[in-house]
Amino acid sequence: xxxxxxxxxxxxxxxxxxxxxxxxxxxxxxxxxxxxxxxxxxxxxxxxxxxxxxxxxxxxxxxxxxxxxxxxxxxxxxxxxxxxxxxxxxxxxxxx
Length: 96
Hints:
Oligomer: single chain
Number of helices: 4
Radius of gyration: 14 Å
Number of strands: 5
């Protein structure tokens, strides 16, 4: 079974909220999924509020062959799941 890491919308009208899920490649966007590994709140004020992800589960699924959508891949980079990725823009400013 080919799996994909993608977003699933759970928010109401004008208030988007997404769950980062592992789903079968053929499943619809808001359809069946295997596991929830995090959330994404685009209306959050800080980077920590915007993306919350279980990095260990994400790495495990990627090692098992799951592919991330383009949006989720950029969110995982922001969260620091991939090696060498920057955790948040605030940490870059603080380190200078």
